[in-house]
């Protein structure tokens, strides 16, 4: 193997191991049937040229609202967005929201936090108990893991913007219901329109299925960029899923490398 290629592979391996260490992955396992095959690493081309492929559909259950009145009204006519649109105005419009039943059990509306001009936006599902208590997204255990993931690509939380599909905590952290998503997600879409990030990273199925209006599972659509209203959108596993399934962290690392490469590409 040419020396430069060998050192490229070593560098890739080193940064992958550092990422695993950083996000607390314990124990590395080599699948026996892979041990005889060539290394499954990235070529330089893969790293510098993230791919854009069409999403393939797969039959799965979903968060994609079937006929969300408020969502389609907003999505079909972005031109109706006011010219003085801003994050502050969106927050004002939300007000002391009573639009869905979650208002009766929430403590705080969790609007979103971070850099209003972020080039990278992470979209999660819904606030949990810690987020509901503090009014901030991703501050619990899953949030701490998200912070490590962000830092693994040499960014800080303050560099990115973090928000959720719905802004109030569902009781007992149950999945958001379709009416809650269709009522609340137009505010998320407006946030994305204002921030105009270069990259949107959907954390988990709720974000992916709501924004892309697909029923595909995360496993099916993750790992490749898609076009979303002038941005590149990538889907990856939710940090809470990673806490339960640490073996999926390696896939998230691949997705983070794609994001890093695209951010650095121009
Ligand atoms: N999970 C989410 O999806 N969002 C949060 O803000 C916290 C946990």
Describe this structure in words.
It is built from eleven helices and six strands. About 15% of the residues have low confidence. It has a six-stranded mixed β-sheet, with helices on both faces. A hairpin with a 2-residue loop joins strand 5 and strand 6. Helices cover 42% and strands 9% of the residues. With 266 residues, it is of the alpha/beta class. It has a single domain, classed as Uracil-DNA Glycosylase, subunit E (3-Layer(aba) Sandwich). Bound molecules: uracil.
Summarize this structure briefly.
With 266 residues, the protein is α/β, with parallel strands linked by helices.
Please render the helix and strand layout as text.
Elements: H1 3-22, H2 44-48, H3 69-76, H4 87-94, E1 113-114, E2 120-124, H5 129-134, H6 141-152, E3 161-164, H7 178-195, E4 199-203, H8 205-212, H9 218-221, E5 226-228, E6 231-236, H10 239-244, H11 249-265
Parallel strand pairs: 2-3, 2-4, 4-6
Antiparallel strand pairs: 1-3, 5-6
Uracil is lined by residues 124-128, 131, 137-138, 140, 142-143, 164, 240.
Identify the overall geometry: globular
**Biggest β-sheet: count, sense, barrel?**
6 strands, mixed
Strand proportion: 5-15%
Task: Look at the structure and give the mean pLDDT.
Answer: 83
Total number of strands: 6
Each distinct ligand: uracil
Radius of gyration: 19 Å
CATH topology term? Uracil-DNA Glycosylase, subunit E
> Which architecture would the CATH scheme give at its second level?
3-Layer(aba) Sandwich
CATH class: Alpha Beta
Order of helices and strands: HHHHEEHHEHEHHEEHH
Question: What is the straight-line distance between the termini?
Answer: 31 Å
Low-confidence stretches: 29-59, 66-73
């Amino acid at each position: 193997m040419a020396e430069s290629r060998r050192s490229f592979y070593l560098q890739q391996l080193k940064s992958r191991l550092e990422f695993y260490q950083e996000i607390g992955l314990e124990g590395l396992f080599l699948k026996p049937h892979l041990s005889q095959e060539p290394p499954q690493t990235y070529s330089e081309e893969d790293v510098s040229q993230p791919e854009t492929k069409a999403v393939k559909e797969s039959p799965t259950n979903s968060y994609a609202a079937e006929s969300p009145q408020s969502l389609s009204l907003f999505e079909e006519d972005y031109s109706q967005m006011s010219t003085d649109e801003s994050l502050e105005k969106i927050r004002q419009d939300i007000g002391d929201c009573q639009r869905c039943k979650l208002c009766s059990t929430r403590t705080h509306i969790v609007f979103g936090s971070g850099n209003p001009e972020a080039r990278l936006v992470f979209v999660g599902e819904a606030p949990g108990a810690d987020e509901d208590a503090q009014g901030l997204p991703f501050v619990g255990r899953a949030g701490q893991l998200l912070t490590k993931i962000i830092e693994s690509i040499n960014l800080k939380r303050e560099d990115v913007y973090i928000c959720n599909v719905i802004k109030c905590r569902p009781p007992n952290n149950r999945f958001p219901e379709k009416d809650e998503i269709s009522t609340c997600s137009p505010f998320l879409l407006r946030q994305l329109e204002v921030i105009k990030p270069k990259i949107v990273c959907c954390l988990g199925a709720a974000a992916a299925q709501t924004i892309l209006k697909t029923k595909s599972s995360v496993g099916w659509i993750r790992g490749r960029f898609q076009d979303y209203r002038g941005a590149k959108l990538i889907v990856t596993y939710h940090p809470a899923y990673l806490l339960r399934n640490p073996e999926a962290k390696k896939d998230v690392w691949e997705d983070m490398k794609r994001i890093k490469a695209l951010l650095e590409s121009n």
